[in-house]
Amino acid sequence: MRFYNIFFSPTGGTEKVADIVAKGTKLDAEEIDLIKEPNKLMKVKFEKKDLCLVAVPSYGGRIPSVVTDMFRKVKADGTKAILVAVFGNRMIDDTLLELQDVLEASGFVCIAGMEAVAEHSLMHQFGTGRPDQQDEKELLEFAAKIMQNSEAQRTPAFPGNRPYREYGGVPLKPVANGKCTSCGLCAKECPAGAIPLDNPKMTDKDKCISCMHCVAVCPKKARNYSKLVSFIAGLKMKKVCSSRKENKLYL
Ligand SMILES: Cc1cc2nc3c(=O)[nH]c(=O)nc-3n(C[C@H](O)[C@H](O)[C@H](O)COP(=O)(O)O)c2cc1C
């Protein structure tokens, strides 16, 4: 039996949550980082006896579109999956339900899921510093409970609605500033292919999913987005995002 920790984590919050949950299973995990090694997922032969942790951030209450595209190319054989939707202290809306649908279409059986808070990757004033110690304790407990129940084949009722919430993206698209040396790291790692390798100073705003991976990886801090737009969006969201949201387990 193999255990895979599969995560899509442009700015590191989802990876932090996935690592805690993986630790809580007490299994040896093989990591599949969907950004650093986008082709690894397709090369793995997922077998019935295997277990996968699949962790994604919630974007507008949905899963990032590029994750759907990646799983479309996967063929699992009744492989069990634990679903993790990570969110920036607003809410996950249909994220878990959509992830369930995408994984089932690829042959996985979803045996458990959770929603977990991490710092908001666009508006860092929300969910600041999370997952924190309290989150870690809860997530480890969630993982232990899932493992006690890991022989189950039943899919829990995840929150959300079909058709899913409409998501048209956000108007925050990072661009290069004068410090850009065209090293090309952002272009190489952009999960949406929105930065041309031969001209990393450009951003294709139609392709960009605002994941902020380019901002996070740039060694020169040469990519940023409009702080004014972010500030205004933050004011609008303050009411719904300020109080501490809980992590939740679905078994
Ligand atoms: C484009 C975009 C849309 C987002 N939409 C939501 C949302 O609807 N609800 C929410 O609570 N957080 C939302 N967030 C915050 C992320 O879900 C959260 O910060 C997550 O931890 C980011 O994962 P990462 O650190 O692995 O990149 C959004 C973030 C981005 C970049």
From TrEMBL:
SUPFAM superfamilies: 4Fe-4S ferredoxins (SSF54862), Flavoproteins (SSF52218). PROSITE patterns: 4FE4S_FER_1, 4FE4S_FER_2, FLAVODOXIN_LIKE. The keyword Iron applies. Gene3D superfamilies: 3.30.70.20, 3.40.50.360. Its cofactor is [4Fe-4S] cluster. Residues 172-200, 204-228 form the 4Fe-4S ferredoxin-type domain. One of its GO terms (molecular function) is oxidoreductase activity, acting on NAD(P)H. It comes from the Bacteria. Keywords: 4Fe-4S, Iron, Iron-sulfur, Metal-binding. Residues 3-147 form the Flavodoxin-like domain. Pfam families: Fer4_9. Ferredoxins are iron-sulfur proteins that transfer electrons in a wide variety of metabolic reactions. PANTHER family: PHOTOSYSTEM I IRON-SULFUR CENTER (PTHR24960:SF79), PHOTOSYSTEM I IRON-SULFUR CENTER-RELATED (PTHR24960). This is Ferredoxin. The lineage of its organism: Bacteria, Bacillati, Bacillota, Clostridia, Lachnospirales.
